[in-house]
Amino acid sequence: MSSKGETKSNAPAGSLISAQRSYIDKMLSNVNDMKVLLLDDETTQMVSMIYSQTDILKRQVFLTDKLFNTRTERMMHLKALVYVRPTDDNIRLLTKELSNPKYKEYHLYFSNVVGKDKLATLARADEHEVITNIYEYYADYFAINHDLFTLNITNSLLNSLPRSRWDANQQTSFSRQVQGCMSALLSLKWKPIIRYQGSSELAQQFSRTLQQQIVTENKLFTFGSRSSNQPILLVLDRRDDPVTPLLTQWTYQAMVHELVGLTHNRVNLENAKGIKKDMREVVLSCVEDEFFNLHMYDNFGDLGSACKDFLALYQRKYKDNQKIESIEDMQNFVERYPQFKALSNNVSKHVAVVGELSRLVAEHNMMDQSQLEQELACDDDHTSQLRTLKTLLEDPNLAGIDALRLVMLYSLRYEDRSSNQTEALKRTLSTRSDSLPQSRISLINTILEYSGTAKRGSDLYGQNKSILSNLTKTLNKGINGVENVYTQHKPMLSEVLDTLVKGKLKDASFPYAREGVTQRGKATDVMIFMVGGTTYEEATIVHEFNKINAGKVKVVLGGPHVHNSKSYMEELTTLGQKTRSGY
User: Which of 219, 377, 368, 345 is nearest to 279 (CA)?
Assistant: First the structure.
């Protein structure tokens, strides 16, 4: 049995998906014979997000299965590739498997650093000497986009409580976040200078713990930078920008996540009206879907136009395929048929998804709602906004959860205004026909306790005070008459990132995790890790930044979770319950 750490990769600098794919490519090519691929629940999802089942089958993989599935049949003619996270449970399952091996030999691949004690446990269990190799492949995260990753951890907002009040779940969550972030750095071959949001105790704890891990595993970080400047890891805290996760989204990927739900690139359309059976679950992946890759950051109006053009392209190709007048035409059609069928399915998928988005936008009067959200986020106009808010709260088409979001945004904006009417708005919410429960309405108090003026380290609204006066309202003709998509809000991340890359981020506000280390010059490789979770709006900011600065700067964004308003409010609910319980 041998143990190896693998940090080398053929991936383009900064692409999380390419970095992960290179690991999987190596793993599948290390064994040329027919093989079995054994995974755990998390690595199954990690692989499926960047590698199709068809691609895996092409690599002589006879069977893909879960490590915990109990199989009685022995297949000693096959070799097993085991790709799992280095958890205690997986080590236990592996020792059980090794005590009664089902396959000729085992090639073990762990998605993160494996402790010496765990390696010793495996060595003792390998009585039949079937372990051929043990590798560490640092891909312990879910790569959503080329510049966005998540760790798929829920309730990370609980880590904002004082560490003395953490239970075992919070300790595990924190450790998993540190491990996942380190894995992402290793996969990109970045040894960073770590900076953090100085106003956040959690960001400080995270940064210093990760810094210590890097020192401990220093032999793994023996690669250089692609430039003379060392990469930067900047750790931010969700509580400094509580507004962004509460806003309605208007770009394709973000809209799907907000209105329908997007988990591991999968969209559940079961509740869509008139949906066909084969479209009840679809995949939106920037790796496998060219249309989605091209338009995932488009606003809703441009998306509608792109979808119409895509449908027109399909219709032209369909007519061309009907012109079969000779044997040669038939042969050409047969050769083109797989591509034509794939095009047909893809068009149907996007028409279904965009159609459902359009229906929800119209049904819930989202344009008026979104306009007020943007004004509350970007401008100080208490009298006018309060008047509009009261009118919208009386609209029966406004969903209760959306009414609550508007009042939360209002309470954050005007928390320190003596004339604010938060208490009166709470009473209005409780008397609406949809009867929001008090447990939901209490989220208004929770978000102020979690992220009110006293808890934030920066002026959340200062950067946007003059936005409305200079606002250019983009009129984008959408589908079904939807117009005027407002997207003037910019997350706080936008300004912080711009300042960081220019080398002008203040040391007092964003200290270094290691004494004596400072950022020199402009950053060229940057990872932003948002404790508490990030959003697709922030991912869009990062994508646009990378596009503008292509070849000069590469930024990747990660966090324990990618929030939409629902997941964010659910985590705030849990946080509020734990806070009030006195834990």
Answer: 345
